[in-house]
Amino acid sequence: MIRLLLALIYVVLFLVLTTPLMLISFLMGKKNRSAGDRLANSVVMWGFRCVSFICGVKLEVTGREKVPAEGGVLYVANHRSIFDIVIGYPLCKCPTGVIAKKSINNVPLLNVWMRILHCQFLDRKNPRSGLDVILKAIELEKEGVSVLIFPEGTRNRDYTSDKLLEMHNGSFKISLKSGAMIQPFVLLGTENILIRHIPFVRRTKVKVRFLDPIDPKTLDKDTVKNIGKYVGGLIEEAYSEMKAES
């Protein structure tokens, strides 16, 4: 309970005290988008890392060198915890935007930071919203901005199973239409930080494994047609392997 309170206090202080940096990064971005992106990403990534530290997360990352160095990429991962973004986002390269649920847009100051970071807010109940978000993400990828998305669409609450929820094919249109590389990665153990024993935050070892990037141009028609199942299968297989090794 103490760790959770400390984390919440830290987040509030972080959002308030970094407001001047928020304004600076916004103004910098108007004149030099790259410089504004670097400042915003550095501040938010540092904030997320501090939250992980306060919560006692011990992180083990493998395969990060596989991430393409040039151009925007589509980061896709499994989703079991609210900590997936806290842990996964700082491992992405700059600049990267997150596709998040609409409710996060209601959090004061955090929503401003996210907009500066090219994040998109998805209303799951509105099909038009989904289309607009995908179209915007495609444009971002073409501009060299990476995008992080959890194609299962919602948190997988079956913590006893290695099975993923179905990954939506529509999420991958961001890559198929922009030509951006797909960068799958696997998160193991994030649900053990908080979700499985709310309101208690426990020290947890979290493993992250980056898989081989996928070039959408090399995929055959059948794979493209079932791309959610294809990528989901790769992540699910790696998840099972990592779990067996733990």
* Gap from first CA to last CA: 26 Å
Strand order of the largest sheet: 1-7-6-2-5-3-4
Structural class: alpha/beta
Largest sheet: 7 strands, mixed
The gross shape turns out to be globular
Proportion of residues in extended strands: 15-25%
Overall mean confidence score, pLDDT: 95
Instruction: List the total number of helices.
Output: 9
Uncertain runs are none
Q: In total, how many beta strands?
A: 7
How big is the Rg? 17 Å
Order of helices and strands: HHHEEHEHEHEHEEHH
What descriptive keywords fit this protein?
246 residues; alpha/beta; 9 helices; globular
Task: Outline the structure in words.
The chain is α/β, with parallel strands linked by helices and 246 residues long. The chain contains nine helices and seven strands; from the N terminus they run H-H-H-E-E-H-E-H-E-H-E-H-E-E-H-H. It has helices spanning 2-17, 19-31, 33-54, 83-88, 110-116, 127-142, 173-178, 221-225, 227-245, and strands at residues 57-62, 73-77, 96-101, 120-122, 146-149, 181-188, 204-210. A seven-stranded mixed β-sheet has the order 1-7-6-2-5-3-4, with helices on both faces. Helix 2 runs antiparallel to helix 3 (33-54). The chain starts with a helix and ends with a helix. The model has no long low-confidence stretch (mean pLDDT 95).
